[in-house]
Specification:
Radius of gyration: 22 Å
Number of strands: 0
Helix content: 40-55%
Shape: flat
Number of helices: 11
Distance between the termini: 23 Å
Strand content: under 5%
Length: about 220
Amino acid sequence: METLQIHPISKSSAAQRAGRAGREAPGKCYRLYPQSYYSLLSDNTTPEIRDCDLTSLVLTLKIQGHDDILNFPFLDRPKRDSVIRSLEVLYLLGALGKDGKPTELGKQMNVLPLTPELGKVLLSSTRGESVCVAEVIDIIACVSASSASSNAIFFTPNSEKRDTSVESRKHFASSYGDHITLLQAFREYLSIVKSEKHGVKEWCDKWGINRRVMKNVVVFPFV
């Protein structure tokens, strides 16, 4: 899964940040750590490809005809385990067949500007007896917008307001799980926006909703 983790910066990143102190006018940069800590930092920042999810990238390479992903000449080679894990996920999703070739489902998933996991969910919502495309689009928007902004739709309660926040979330809670809870919160937000636009801020404050993230959900460009 993708997680936000705290990592030490590199020496090159520290130098870049110091340079910003004098970009507009003469300035000084104060580093809030000792010289001994600075000497332990790596010289350069680890390339993002070594830490990010590779599932979408691997699927794209497969569709472009690159079968030997493990030996693909990346400029910065990602971890082997990450590539293998991505191949396993794509196989489990049905994007790759037993022969390692992209399936028709995999090609459809690659067209969507979503992760393969969410793409599979969206495509599945259009098939079968229970067609629920509109609901799934709203849920994906909630999940995607929260991930993109690094903030959840619900504010994380502090110790002083924890009890109040828990009670507020019960208003939207569903026995079917967190995704339906998000859907119910978003649908009620839309109804407030349409019928009582001047009371949106008060409604968000009352139920512990992150208004900025909710605005991103409405316009999230994933379809």
